[in-house]
């Protein structure tokens, strides 16, 4: 009998639309000969909607984007009264990104109702999602990361003038728990820095300002193999056509050049892979992760680690897995199999 897999997408974060794209791609590519599939959409109001999707084609993207008005979707179900969503569910495939999906909240919820899920657990998800917390871990363990300052009500000594003096321009301004390059920006001068700090302070009491590292950006995925051992995928070299690898460069076809395997010496590729593996294990990730880094003056600076990397048609992890000879359905199978194995 086929295992029932709930593919979960959406959520209240700024990455809602990207999550729907990831989930829709999974629904299109998942091996229905092996898995029985249920599409689950979490609205921005944190309500659950679902429909069984065993037959092709899967629900269209516009249906997933408007589940409340879709005749084929059941719901809404509040999290505290959503038992219908999880009936006969053997595992949850998380195609979520950002807050409520990648920060440990949904992981803790699924733990409480006994549903295994793909990706990392509560602790690793929360640590990786918070760029400040993960920076502390990197620094304490000798992993290079760009110099930074913290801005907000608790950091009264951090002013625009002091940030400019310490980091110079350009510098990057980020909400610590945002992803997919949302709620982040590049400040070329003091006026732009002040504007970004004011804008992002409406979303977070703590703002991260990072020095810009001049160099080449790489991304490297890590997977948990059938034997439970971690292995690094071929690194990807990223050459954005925009000034930096922002939201548009990530999700617009042709907006950046992504070379996999990266056309670099084997010694450098091995350094990138070893760094990704070290970060994966340091944070305590499981299942999958993708670490972004930049090479400047022969130093690899870790930018961040994603515990639920994007799975859209333009995402980096499937491209890197394909470079090993694997297919998208095989990637899905591997992630689900490891989730079921951890339950056992």
Structural notes for this entry:
The structure is a single chain. 33% of the residues lie in helices and 24% in strands. It has 344 residues and is of the alpha+beta class. It folds into 3 domains: 3-117, Rossmann fold; 127-144 and 214-343, D-amino Acid Aminotransferase, Chain A, domain 1, CATH 3.30.470.20; 148-211, ATP-grasp fold, A domain (Dna Ligase, domain 1, 2-Layer Sandwich), CATH 3.30.1490. The strands form 3 sheets. Strands 10, 11, 12, 13, 14 and 15 form a 6-stranded antiparallel β-sheet that branches. The chain has a 5-stranded mixed β-sheet with strand order 4-3-2-1-5. The protein has a 4-stranded antiparallel β-sheet with strand order 6-9-7-8, covered by helices on one side. Strand 10 and strand 11 form a beta hairpin. The longest helix has 18 residues, at 266-283. 47% of the residues are buried. The model has no long low-confidence stretch (mean pLDDT 92).
What's the layout of helices and strands?
Elements: E1 3-10, H1 16-29, E2 35-42, E3 48-52, H2 61-65, E4 74-77, H3 83-86, E5 91-94, H4 105-113, H5 122-129, H6 131-140, E6 148-151, H7 160-167, E7 171-174, E8 184-187, H8 190-200, E9 207-211, E10 216-224, E11 230-232, E12 236-240, H9 247-251, E13 256-259, H10 266-283, E14 288-296, E15 299-306, H11 316-322, H12 328-343
Parallel strand pairs: 1-2, 1-5
Antiparallel strand pairs: 2-3, 3-4, 6-9, 7-8, 7-9, 10-11, 10-12, 10-14, 12-13, 14-15
């Amino acid at each position: 009998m086929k295992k029932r897999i709930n593919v979960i997408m959406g959520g209240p974060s700024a990455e809602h639309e990207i999550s729907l794209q990831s989930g829709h791609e999974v629904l299109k590519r998942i091996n229905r000969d092996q898995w029985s599939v249920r599409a689950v959409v979490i609205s921005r109001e944190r309500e659950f909607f679902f429909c069984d999707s065993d037959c092709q084609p899967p629900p269209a993207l516009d249906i997933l984007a408007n589940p409340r008005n879709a005749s084929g979707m059941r719901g809404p179900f509040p999290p505290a009264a959503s038992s219908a969503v999880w009936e006969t569910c053997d595992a949850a495939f998380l195609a979520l990104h950002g807050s409520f999906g990648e920060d440990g909240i949904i992981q803790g919820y699924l733990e409480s109702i006994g549903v295994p899920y793909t990706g990392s657990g509560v602790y690793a998800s929360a640590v990786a999602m918070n760029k400040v917390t993960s920076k502390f871990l990197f620094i304490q363990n000798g992993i290079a990361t760009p110099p930074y300052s913290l801005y907000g009500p608790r950091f009264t000594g951090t002013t625009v003038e002091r940030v400019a003096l310490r980091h110079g321009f350009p510098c990057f301004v980020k909400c610590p728990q945002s992803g997919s390059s949302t709620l982040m920006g590049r400040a070329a001068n003091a006026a732009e820095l002040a504007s970004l700090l004011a804008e992002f302070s409406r979303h977070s009491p703590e703002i991260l300002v990072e020095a810009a590292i001049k160099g080449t950006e790489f991304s490297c995925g890590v997977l948990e193999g059938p034997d439970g051992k971690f292995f690094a995928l071929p690194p990807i070299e990223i050459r954005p056509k925009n000034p930096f690898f922002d939201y548009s460069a990530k999700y617009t076809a042709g907006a950046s050049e992504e070379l996999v395997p990266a056309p670099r010496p084997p010694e450098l590729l091995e350094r990138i892979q070893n760094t990704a593996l070290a970060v994966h294990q340091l944070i305590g990730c499981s299942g999958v992760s993708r670490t972004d880094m930049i090479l400047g003056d022969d130093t690899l600076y870790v930018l961040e680690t994603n515990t639920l990397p994007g799975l859209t048609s333009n995402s980096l992890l499937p491209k890197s897995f394909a470079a090993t000879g694997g297919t998208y359905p095989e990637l899905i199978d591997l992630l689900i199999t490891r989730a079921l194995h951890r339950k056992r």
